[in-house]
Amino acid sequence: MGWFVSFHGYRDPVLRLLLTLLAVTAVTLATGWLVDRSLQRAAARHPESPLWAPLRRCRVPLQFVVATGLLLAAPHLVDDPDLRHALVLVALAATGWLVVRVSAAVLDGVLLRYETSAGDPARLQRVRTQLGMLRRVVSALIAVVTMAVMLLTFTAARTLGASLLASAGILGIVAGVAAQGTLGNFFAGLQIAFSDTVRIGDTVVVEGQQGTVEEITLSYLVVRLWDYRRLVVPVSYFVSKPFENWTRRDPGLLASVLLHLDHATPVPALRERLRETLAASSHWDGQEWALRVVDATPSTIVVRATMTARSPDETFELRAAVREDLIAYLRTEHPEALPRLRTTAEEG
Predict the structure, then answer these.
(1) Per DSSP, which regions of the chain are E strands?
(2) 216 and 274 both lie in a single domain
(3) Into how many domains does the chain fold?
(4) DSSP letter (8 states) at residue 226
(5) CA angle at residue 337 from 336 to 340, to 5 degrees?
(6) What is the pLDDT, as a whole number, of residue 261?
(7) What b/e sequence results for 60-71 when a residue is b if at least 16 CB atoms lie within 10 Å of its CB, and e otherwise?
(8) pLDDT of residue 327
(9) In the chain, what percentage of residues exceed pLDDT 70?
(10) Which pTM does this prediction carry?
(11) What is the separation, in whole angstroms, between the first and last Cα of the chain?
């Protein structure tokens, strides 16, 4: 801090203030530049580690910490108590911001490293969900601690906190009852993340609507529906009510197509057509397929074609393609197989 002392030697307070601010700005920018260059060199020396790129996002909060720390350390620069208190608050907020960014960068680095080495997509989805939830929990805890420390810098807040210690039990009960829904969602989110009941990327059916889990937070879960609408559901729903998870263990599904056809339908020819259609389709996984007559009425038969696909999205595409192809085949090759309405004329 020798340059602070040398600037203090200037008799003109305005000039001393300008020189000090200029020095603080220069040191702050230089610190950010040096840290960024160091991280770039570390990334170049160790390209296999994904940690360095996320850490570079910590540059701005680090510069805030450095700038406020230098301003507070400058002798006689900030003599006004209110202004000095404001700088302390900014420094605390910047420190909390920096800790959040560092923790997020570490977790992102762990996830990126796992993505490059994991061979199991289901396990990767589970780790992504758990790390995302852990990141939100850590960020929330850091924010709460930072705000508490900032409040303790106020004399009135310290006095009030000491007087409330005697009634902390009653206040805890009241707060627990008032925040019952919030706390329930919070613990439900933790349970979902670490019990592996639903993960980011899973295909689920909620209240009769199918979609893909897009985001899991501490209080709600976002499901992207087939028409790109977003269904926002409280996380407590997934621990208190039944729901369908189509991809929890294996993303592969069995698709089925129902056709109502005439009794004259050539079922063996239709079965052969299904085999040819599946063999030419990129959505079929090559494992299972079948075509059976599953029901009959006085006027029609019900033919069910089943086939397997690798994922729910490919299941939908395969089902639609098979339905279109079989109907087109019957219309052109066997029009007598299409359902028709039979009537009888009464004599006389």
Answers:
(1) 203-206, 209-216, 220-225, 230-234, 244-245, 253-261, 284-296, 301-309
(2) no
(3) 3
(4) T
(5) 75
(6) 92
(7) ebbbbbbbbbbb
(8) 93
(9) 76
(10) 0.52
(11) 118
Type of residue at 5: V
Domain of 325, in residue numbers: 253-337
Cβ neighbourhood burial of 248 (10 Å; 0-12, 13-18, 19+) = middle
Of 117, 137, 161, which residue is a domain's last? 117
6 and 105 share one domain:
yes
- Tell me whether residue 173 is in a domain: no
**Inside any domain, residue 134:** no
Give the C-alpha separation, 305 to 270, whole Å. 10
The pair of structure tokens assigned to 339 is: 């359902």
Question: Residues 94, 53: one domain?
Answer: yes
**Is 158 inside any structural domain?**
no
Residues 302, 272 within the same domain: yes
Is the distance from CB of 321 to CB of 277 less than 8 angstroms?
Answer: yes
CB atoms within 10 A of CB 2: 6
User: Is residue 10 within 8 Å of residue 74, measured between CB atoms?
Assistant: no
Which of 245, 275, 291 marks a domain boundary?
245
Please report the sign of the dihedral spanned by the C-alpha atoms of residue 225, residue 228, residue 231, residue 232: positive
To which residue do tokens 């897009």 refer? Answer: 214
Do 227 and 261 belong to one domain?
no
Same domain membership, residue 102 and residue 67? yes
Residues 210 and 272 in one domain: no
> Among candidates 165, 319, 163, 339, which has minimal Cα distance to 255?
319
Angle (deg, nearest 10), helices 59-73 and 13-45: 150
Please give the structure tokens belonging to residue 14. 């305005």
Selection from 311, 298, 335 nearest residue 247 by Cα: 311
Alpha-carbon span 318 to 281, nearest angstrom: 8
Mean pLDDT of 121-133: 71
Task: Return d(Cα 286, Cα 212) in angstroms, integer.
Answer: 25
- Please report whether residue 286 resides in a domain: yes
pLDDT band at 160 (very low <50, low <70, confident <90, very high): low
Q: Are 27 and 106 within one domain?
A: yes
Pair of tokens at residue 237: 């729903």
Closest by CA to 224, choosing from 213, 233, 234, is 213
> Residue 325: which pLDDT band, with cuts at 50, 70 and 90?
very high
